[in-house]
Design a protein that fits this description.
CATH topology of the largest domain: TIM Barrel
Radius of gyration: 22 Å
Largest sheet: 9 strands, mixed
Bound molecules: zinc ion
Structural class: alpha/beta
CATH architecture of the largest domain: Alpha-Beta Barrel
Oligomer: single chain
Length: 350
């Protein structure tokens, strides 16, 4: 029997945004998360709040056989998901220390969105860390480039391939999922250990992020009004009522989602030019109409790929050499990393 698990879900216990302390990271309620998972036929859900397992414990009380207690831990080197945890792991440790602490309690470690351009991520450290799985499909990577890159890199690293919705609202739960043989949390644990997992589902649609902004605005407004009625910090809460009131005018969440999406796409283009080129090229080649148009010169494409891969390689080498502080510890990694990159680049079929 093949089952589905969403390995990356946030709840209202995830705390507030790092940049805007009055905005909650997620307002998802445990009972609603369970309902949505049931509706979408997701058999197991891992609750992975930021730096706490409290959400996982609360959701587990409602559906003990369906919930994996986890945490998205902010390490000095980027975020790491700990799954099957009994105790919270503090943020701020190195990736290695964090992985050790997860393993001490029998848990599993996963690199969430390793090449994210927004979240603190492990990037190429996934090549040498002792991780159990890589989130090769993150629900928030609508660009297509980052998930594809992670998938390609994991062909070299060969850890368990996992998908997580990274749901920040209830309706995002199960948008994408990991498939595995069996049905229990124990079966999922074994499947990850044996690297016998697969991925399915799709990325989070833009309208769900619009609704996320809208729901969050409504939540802040309600909470601030309640605080004003109780006489708490009236000046600050009046400001929040006005701000959140403006943010829920339907035009605002729509615009915010479009602008953030555009910003994300541009950032991906800038930080991953080679991967972006290959992705677009692949789309063009898949789309026969543009080939019939005969506007693509194959030599031109080959030259572009060659130049971009060389530029990308030189750029990465240059960054590594400039980073003298890390030179001693990273020296081995740097060479294998460059080799892997060259290998990956040459392995892509055009
Ligand atoms: Zn997350």
């Amino acid at each position: 029997m093949i089952s589905k698990a969403d390995i990356h879900i946030h709840t209202k216990y995830s705390g507030n945004s790092k940049d805007f302390s009055f905005i909650p990271d997620s307002i998802s309620r445990p009972e609603k998360i369970i309902k949505v998972a049931e509706k979408k036929a997701i058999d197991l859900i891992a609750i992975t709040d930021h730096n706490t397992i409290r959400g996982g414990i609360e959701v587990e009380k409602l559906a003990p056989s369906k919930v994996i207690v986890g945490e998205e831990i902010l390490t000095k080197d980027g975020e790491i998901l700990g799954l099957f945890l009994n105790q919270s792991i503090p943020p701020g440790l190195s990736a290695e220390e964090t992985i050790e602490k997860v393993k001490e309690q029998g848990g599993l470690t996963v690199a969430p969105h390793p090449y994210s351009v927004i979240c603190p991520s492990l990037k190429n450290k996934i090549f040498y860390l002792d991780l159990d799985g890589i989130e090769v499909f993150n629900g928030f990577h609508r660009d297509g480039v980052l998930n594809r890159k992670t998938f390609q890199e994991n062909k070299i690293i060969r850890k368990a391939s996992l998908a997580g919705s990274d749901a920040h609202t209830e309706r995002m739960v199960g948008n994408c999922y990991t498939t595995f043989e069996g049905e229990s949390p124990d079966d999922l644990y074994k499947a990850i250990k044996k690297r016998k997992t697969s991925i399915g589902g799709s990325v989070t649609p833009l309208f769900q992020t619009m609704l996320w902004s809208w729901n969050t605005g409504c939540h802040i407004m309600k909470k601030s009004i309640a605080d004003i009625l109780m006489g708490k910090d009236i000046k600050k809460n009046t400001g929040l009522v006005i701000g959140s009131g403006l943010s829920v005018i339907p035009f605002m969440p729509v615009m915010a989602a479009i602008v953030i999406n555009r910003y994300h796409t541009k950032k991906v283009e800038k930080e991953y030019p080679f991967e972006n080129l290959i992705f677009n090229l692949d789309n063009k080649l898949k789309n026969n109409r543009s080939i019939d148009g005969a506007s693509i010169d194959i030599n031109d494409i080959a030259n572009k790929i060659y130049l971009t891969s060389i530029e990308n390689l030189i750029f990465n080498m240059d960054c590594n050499f400039k980073n003298r502080d890390n030179l001693d510890t990273d020296i081995d990694m740097r060479h294998t990393d460059i080799f892997n990159k060259m290998y990956a680049n040459s392995a892509i079929e055009v």
